[in-house]
Amino acid sequence: MKKVIWGLILLLVVLHQDIWNWDNDRLVFGIIPVTLAYHACISIAASAVWLTAALTAWPDHLEDESESSEAAQ
């Protein structure tokens, strides 16, 4: 699963470089420039990837250390 997460992160890095939209003057919903809407979607995708990484690829041994240190206090 970690390789999938890293692949998604790499994909987001590549998609973030949107040089093809720089000269686009169209508006989304009549008020938002296409480039701004594109970056909003990239930000939402990045947060979804981070959530997926935190839920699936988080190292279990860190949680074990945290719980044992809390019990000792």
UniProtKB/TrEMBL annotation:
Taxonomy, superkingdom: Bacteria
Keyword Transmembrane annotated: yes
UniProt cross-references to InterPro entries, sorted A to Z: DUF3311 (IPR021741)
Pfam families: DUF3311
Ranges that cross the membrane: 27-51
Keywords noted in UniProt: Membrane, Transmembrane, Transmembrane helix
UniProt keyword Transmembrane helix present: yes
Protein name per the record: DUF3311 domain-containing protein
Organism: Rubripirellula reticaptiva
